[in-house]
């Protein structure tokens, strides 16, 4: 598992996208500006999308079912990255969080593929799907997520709700046709 940690007292903000299908719309770029890290849950579509995202922030991306060819060979099918004390498990089709993160630490499972934005908590694990940041399909809006990582409170005890960092997702509907 790779780590992107920081001694931030302010929340870290993670941009989460999926299913760009070779398109990175200016409205999506605008909403990613200022994030600390970007997670791409597959169906990137082209290496140019990754290059453009890397101009905004560090990127962790996985391969989706449309990601084929030499450029996509370097993309893993699953990635784990720790950011601000939160373990993110990323795959195009919903990964299992088995063994992810530190024992008792916060885990967020990120998936794409469905083009349907969703958020759910199961057994203490947050599951999110940012929907599709690419071309609009099936009459659905273009969406992405921003996840704020709230740091653990200094001096919090093991039983305190804020003893560990927390991931707080926000669904962002991106305008445009």
Which structural class is indicated by helix and strand composition? Answer: mainly beta
Strand order of the largest sheet: 1-5-6-7-9-8
Reported for the largest beta sheet, the result is:
6 strands, mixed
Strand tally: 11
Total number of helices:
2
CATH class reads Alpha Beta
The CATH architecture is 4-Layer Sandwich
Rough outline? globular
The figure for the number of domains is: 1
Distance between the termini: 37 Å
* Poorly predicted sequence stretches spanning 5 or more consecutive residues: none
CATH T-level topology: Purple Acid Phosphatase, chain A, domain 2
Q: What's the helical proportion of residues?
A: under 10%
CATH homologous superfamily identity: Metallo-dependent phosphatases
Series of H and E elements: EEHEHEEEEEEEE
Average the pLDDT over all residues and give the rounded result: 91
The fraction of residues assigned to DSSP E strands is 35-45%
Provide the gyration radius in Å. 16 Å
Write the layout of secondary structure elements.
Blueprint: E1 2-4, E2 12-17, H1 26-32, E3 37-40, H2 47-54, E4 59-61, E5 78-83, E6 86-91, E7 107-110, E8 117-122, E9 125-130, E10 142-150, E11 166-174
Parallel strand pairs: 1-5, 2-3, 3-4, 6-7, 7-9
Antiparallel strand pairs: 2-10, 5-6, 8-9, 10-11
Characterize the structure shown.
The protein has a single domain (2-174), classed as Purple Acid Phosphatase, chain A, domain 2, CATH 3.60.21. 8% of the residues lie in helices and 35% in strands. The protein is built from two helices and eleven strands; from the N terminus they run ββαβαββββββββ. The chain has helices at 26-32, 47-54, and strands spanning 2-4, 12-17, 37-40, 59-61, 78-83, 86-91, 107-110, 117-122, 125-130, 142-150, 166-174. The chain has a six-stranded mixed sheet, with no helix packed on it. A five-stranded mixed sheet has the order 4-3-2-10-11. The N and C termini lie far apart (37 Å). The mean pLDDT is 91.
């Amino acid at each position: 598992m790779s780590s992107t940690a920081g001694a931030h007292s302010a929340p870290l903000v993670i941009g989460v996208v999926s299913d760009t299908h070779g398109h990175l719309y200016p409205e999506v770029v605008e909403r990613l500006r200022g994030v600390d890290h970007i997670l791409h849950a597959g169906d990137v579509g082209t290496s140019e999308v990754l290059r453009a995202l890397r101009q905004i922030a560090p990127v962790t991306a996985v391969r989706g079912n449309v990601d084929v060819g030499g450029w996509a060979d370097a993309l893993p099918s699953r990635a784990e990255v720790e950011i601000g004390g939160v373990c993110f498990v990323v795959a195009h089709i919903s990964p299992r969080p088995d063994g992810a993160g530190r024992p008792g630490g916060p885990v967020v499972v990120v998936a794409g593929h469905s083009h349907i934005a969703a958020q759910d908590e199961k057994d203490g694990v947050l599951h999110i799907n940012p929907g599709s940041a690419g071309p609009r399909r099936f009459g659905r809006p273009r969406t992405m997520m921003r996840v704020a990582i709230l740091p653990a409170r200094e001096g919090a005890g093991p039983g305190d709700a804020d003893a560990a960092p927390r991931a707080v997702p926000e669904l962002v509907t991106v305008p445009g046709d």
